[in-house]
Amino acid sequence: MCGRYASFRDAQDLVDDLAIADVADDARLLPPSWNVAPTDPVRIVVERPRRIDGKNTGEITRSLQVARWGLVPSWAKDPGVGARMINARSETLLDKSAFAKPLAVRRCLLPADGYYEWRKLDLPPGDAATGEAKGRSRAKVPKQPYWIHPAGGGVAALAGLYEFWRDRSRADDDPDRWLVSATVITTAASDDLERIHDRMPVILPAHAWDAWLDPAVGADEAMAIVGGPQVGMATRPVGDAVGSVQNNRPSLLDLDPDPRDPDAAAAGEG
């Protein structure tokens, strides 16, 4: 899964890197974050027709917008369901009603600088595992957090879907009547990352961005893009501070000087 990521690149850098034509005011003003968490506002890159006289009838334009992380289907009764839809498994995109339509017509990129994942480690000898017989001590499974980022530098363009949800309790002229939300598509981890976690976000290389964002590309072709090549990633063990959403600072990316994962040093993280 992908439950935390970082997005601290300046909006103008994203404009240059992703050939963005328009930047919404709220996207330009969104502060950098080194610890993006579910339901946070996030930046998304989309291609949609320009609005002319209140209608989407203009030319297709690539823009940087803001959405809430956690997709809320258009048919949902309550936006709270989005907290459970921060990720969309690539294997079931066509089977889930919440994701099938967005896959066909509402795809996006979530620009990131990297993401975090936690590797579950073995319990120390003598500690009882969580869930053993009642009355016995239960030890918490130790985990090592990792910062995972593009090996060659540059932006990590997470493949995503977005959706519009209408709040029927608000008036037609209320600017907050529409909620835009997004989800990150995940897939089975690559060979070099599966030791950390069995899932990873789909991170598209630059040559796939145009087709992924193109609204004329259908669901079947989009599925082929999801299953295509991805960006090579580097890993770095980091400290436990990232585990709290209250912590949001550049030092979250610092190398853990004493990682509890015994394999960290041998794996060549950086």
Automatic annotation (TrEMBL):
It comes from the Bacteria. Belongs to the SOS response-associated peptidase family. It comes from Isoptericola cucumis. Signal peptide: none annotated. Keywords: Covalent protein-DNA linkage, DNA damage, DNA-binding, Hydrolase, Lyase, Protease. This is Abasic site processing protein. It is an enzyme of class 3 (hydrolase). Gene3D superfamilies: SOS response associated peptidase-like. Its EC number is 3.4.-.-. InterPro entries: SRAP (IPR003738), SRAP-like (IPR036590). Residues 239-270 are annotated as: Disordered.
